[in-house]
Amino acid sequence: MAIQKGQFVEVSWAALEPSGRSDNIPESTKQVPLIARVKGFAVETTEGSDDISIVTLSGRVLRGKVCDSAPRYSHDFGKPQPELQRIGPTLRRELV
What domains lie within the chain, and their CATH numbers? Predict the structure, then answer.
């Protein structure tokens, strides 16, 4: 996959190898590296699966393997909670 300089990508790398993991975590977790995944803008153009440097929105420069060449933000706050939908207007009336 070709990555162009300035393209928004997601990179990953082993932030912590198994030997460096804490003793206070489950054994199955200790056996695998802790993988970091970060989105940012490519600093250089690259072909294939080479490591690439990125600049994040906060200005950090990081290096890793491209794991997504067109990442998106897919998180949300879940389904609306009826209790919270009702309590908001009620509290506004009481506070005013």
Answer: 1-72 (2.30.30)
